[in-house]
Amino acid sequence: MIEKTGYLLSSGKQERYIQIESLLIFFHEKFISAGKHHIIEGEHNIGMISINEEIWSYSGLETLSDAEREELFDFIQHYQYTIEREIVQSFGLALELDNNLTYCEVLFKDGAYDICFDGKTVGRINQDENQQWIQTEGSTLSGLTVQTITNRLEEYYK
To answer: How many domains is the chain built from?
Structure first.
């Protein structure tokens, strides 16, 4: 089984969206990581990261600096695969926040939508009794940010 996720690498003023395709295998009645991760930027496979008991190696990835490789390895090492967590409906989008590109993931669970920026939960939105979108938890998001997310939500589920 292949699980896909994304990660936003930021170094200085340069931001790059990297897609990670991780190979999962079925072992002892559950899916676990096989330790093989294809790294894709745009439409091009730029390399592979292999992890075996905290020891990692890579091939390719010439377009990434040593610091970016380390950052990507750290993300992969701590990533919790969807199959290991509660399966929820979700979608992702890129948002511009404070002149920076941020990967936003919207997860539907428990009747509301959790908002995650670059893998960290920052808030929760829901509709009130008048079907108006409101933020119910988390750090305060700007009205424009909530509106952008809810517009995409409504488009996604049409």
So the answer is: 2
Same domain, 103 and 135: yes
Domain boundaries, position 75: 2-84
26-31 contact pairs (CB < 8 A, 24+): 26/1, 30/83, 30/84, 31/1, 31/81, 31/83, 31/84
| Model pLDDT for residues 116-152, shown as the tens digit of each residue | 887 788 999 998 888 888 899 888 888 888 898 888 8
Verify that 80 and 108 share a domain, yes or no. no
Prediction pTM value: 0.51
Residue 144 makes CB contacts below 8 A (sequence gap 6+) with none
Number of alpha carbons in the 13 Å side-chain half-sphere of residue 47: 15
Same domain, 106 and 49: no
Residue-wise pLDDT for 2-47, tens only, equals 888 888 887 777 788 888 888 888 777 677 777 889 999 888 889 9
Do 45 and 101 lie in a common domain?
A: no
SS3 99: coil
Which pair of structure tokens corresponds to residue 108? 């539907």
Q: How far is it, in rounded angstroms, from Cα 105 to Cα 118?
A: 8
Q: Are residues 15 and 78 in the same domain?
A: yes
